[in-house]
């Protein structure tokens, strides 16, 4: 899903959808799942050059992905839908009795991670890959992507509650994926979540994606490395703990015994004893498909 919360950020998508031909291409890929350039050219009665131009526009905004297939008579470019839906929020959803903060992915306060691993800003790698020591580099606060195979990383959440106010729900939104050596779209990883060291549950990430370039991923980034993740919404309230509306545990907000003086910390981990040790990648504002860090919303009463 492509989620647009700023109309200016959505301009590439809007421009791509302004063409009748490109709308027809999306319709054909929805019907046939995938088509090569020649097939699109024949069905739309256009030259290969014209099809290439339209397909490039759709790829740039993240609506389709292009893969190369080697055959006896050369290579073919295969087109398929990359996203099957997009959501445009023009008016920001205001929730009464709440506050929101965005935490940069480099603003962690604790970690214990193991290779393969690495960290990078929008402009460069920080130090060497597969060397956990660079997670302590001062430049880490500017990072926009980080990854590791197992271990944990922890972030502090500001607590702005006042005396007499009580937590009713904490929401955490983030773009994440597995971490495979290189990349692999089928690479399950059990990513666990804890709040103040209370285990909330786990979600199994399907894979580590490099089948197409992330919409925000910078041009210098290596094409066979992690390109984008999946946007996940973790939340805990009086009914339990959920990811994208699916309950992952019976742990409720009251089980954590929070008050206006409480420190808050969210831990993301891939434990050594979990079934699928497939790593974790966290995408920030300048990598992946979503222009955000780790977004927090606290609702209180």
Automatic annotation (TrEMBL):
<dbReference type="InterPro" id="IPR011991">
    <property type="entry name" value="ArsR-like_HTH"/>
</dbReference>
<dbReference type="InterPro" id="IPR036388">
    <property type="entry name" value="WH-like_DNA-bd_sf"/>
</dbReference>
<dbReference type="InterPro" id="IPR036390">
    <property type="entry name" value="WH_DNA-bd_sf"/>
</dbReference>
<dbReference type="InterPro" id="IPR001845">
    <property type="entry name" value="HTH_ArsR_DNA-bd_dom"/>
</dbReference>
<feature type="domain" description="HTH arsR-type">
    <location>
        <begin position="2"/>
        <end position="102"/>
    </location>
</feature>
<dbReference type="GO" id="GO:0003700">
    <property type="term" value="F:DNA-binding transcription factor activity"/>
</dbReference>
<protein>
    <submittedName>
        <fullName>Transcriptional regulator, ArsR family</fullName>
    </submittedName>
</protein>
<dbReference type="Pfam" id="PF13412">
    <property type="entry name" value="HTH_24"/>
</dbReference>
<dbReference type="InterPro" id="IPR016943">
    <property type="entry name" value="UCP030050_HTH"/>
</dbReference>
């Amino acid at each position: 899903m492509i989620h647009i919360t700023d109309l200016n950020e959505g301009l590439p998508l809007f421009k791509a959808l302004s063409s009748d031909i490109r709308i027809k291409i999306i319709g054909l890929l929805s019907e046939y799942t995938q088509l090569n350039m020649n097939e699109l050219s024949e069905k739309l009665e256009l030259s290969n050059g014209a099809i290439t131009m339209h397909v490039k526009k759709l790829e740039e905004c993240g609506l389709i992905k292009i893969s190369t297939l080697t055959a006896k008579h050369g290579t073919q470019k295969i087109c398929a839908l990359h996203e099957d839906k997009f959501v445009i929020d023009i008016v920001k959803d205001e929730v009464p009795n709440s506050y929101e903060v965005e935490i940069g992915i480099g603003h962690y306060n604790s970690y214990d991670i193991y290779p393969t691993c690495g960290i990078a800003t929008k402009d460069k790698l920080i130090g060497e890959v597969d060397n956990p020591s660079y997670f302590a580099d001062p430049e880490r606060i500017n990072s926009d992507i980080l990854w590791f195979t197992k271990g944990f990383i922890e972030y502090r959440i500001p607590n702005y509650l006042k005396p007499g106010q009580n937590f009713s729900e904490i929401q955490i939104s983030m773009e994440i994926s597995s971490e495979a050596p290189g990349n692999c779209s089928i690479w399950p990883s059990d990513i666990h979540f804890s709040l103040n060291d209370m285990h909330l549950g786990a979600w199994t990430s399907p894979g580590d994606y490099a089948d197409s370039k992330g919409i925000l991923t910078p041009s210098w980034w290596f094409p066979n490395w992690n390109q984008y993740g999946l946007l996940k919404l973790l939340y805990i309230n009086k009914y339990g703990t959920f990811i994208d509306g699916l309950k992952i545990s019976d742990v409720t907000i009251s089980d954590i015994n929070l008050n206006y003086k409480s420190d808050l910390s969210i831990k993301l981990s891939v434990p050594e004893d979990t079934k699928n040790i497939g790593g974790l990648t966290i995408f920030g504002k300048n990598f992946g498909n979503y222009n955000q860090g780790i977004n927090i919303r606290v609702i209180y009463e």
